[in-house]
Amino acid sequence: MINQITESTAYLQGKGFDQPEIGIILGTGLGQLVNEIEIIAEASYNHIPNFPTATVEFHKGKLIYGNLEGKKVVVMQGRFHVYEGYTLQDVTFPVRIMEKLGIKTLLVSNASGAINLNYKKGELMLIDDHINLQGGSPLAFKGVSELGERFADMSAPYDAEINAKFESIAKAHNITLHKGVYTSVVGPQLETRAEYRMLKIIGSDAVGMSTVPEIIVANHLNLKVAAVSVLTDECDPENLKPVDISEIIAMAEKAEPNMITLFKELIKTL
């Protein structure tokens, strides 16, 4: 993997990706942030050596480098998921590349379902902690200790200072921003009523199919990390109806302006 990381990083540096400070993973609900960036260079995933390729139709597949609110950023427009058939090492490979390029902070967005029924669809949730139900670890491979501490500490995976800034920005802009526990499952099937009940019992406020692997690797690399979820549906096991994926995408898009405000205002302060 070290050779692959070196090769991919060298390719991007040759394309003009020069010492970004902040990495951003654009999940469902933050795609339009790209329009706010003064783009200096970009590379399609399928052109970057050793990179996976996004297979979900509503996830684009580009790495973008440029200026945002006076900071150099590298942005993943489209992410990878275990449910696409990738390994956890594949899913998190771009985080390792962004760190090698120079980032010190990683900001992540995603779409999730609200397990906490006090939270409503269209609102945002700041991730304060997580539960990994993906059945594995992106650090469980031979040679991982050459890339960082094998037994990565996860007592505080999300940066308290950045989270406090997010909450302050939300308050100043009158944006509803809950704070809670995000649980990551494999997917791609959605949960049964019994699974939603279980998720509530173990302390989940929201559930999704991404983010946790990237957070684990970012902590392995000693990056500062923060993540925000768009709550796209309400997961009430007593009143469960079939989910329309197009409605989930529409709800994410509706919440997007608030998400963009949070990220832009935060980046000004970093």
TrEMBL record:
Superkingdom of this protein's organism: Bacteria
Single GO biological process annotation from the record: nucleoside metabolic process
SUPFAM superfamilies: Purine and uridine phosphorylases
Pathway in which this enzyme or protein is active: Purine metabolism; purine nucleoside salvage
Glycosyltransferase in keyword set: yes
Keywords: Glycosyltransferase, Transferase
Gene3D superfamilies in the record: Nucleoside phosphorylase domain
This enzyme's EC code(s): 2.4.2.1
Domain Nucleoside phosphorylase: 21-268
Enzyme class: transferase
Glycosyltransferase is among the record's keywords: yes
Pfam family, one: PNP_UDP_1
CDD domains membership: PNP-EcPNPII_like
This protein's GO CC annotations: cytoplasm
Gene Ontology molecular functions: purine-nucleoside phosphorylase activity
Task performed by this protein: The purine nucleoside phosphorylases catalyze the phosphorolytic breakdown of the N-glycosidic bond in the beta-(deoxy)ribonucleoside molecules, with the formation of the corresponding free purine bases and pentose-1-phosphate.
Similarity annotation: Belongs to the PNP/MTAP phosphorylase family.
NCBIfam families recorded: PNPH, PNPH-PUNA-XAPA, PRK08202.1
The protein, known as: Purine nucleoside phosphorylase
Gene source species: Winogradskyella eximia
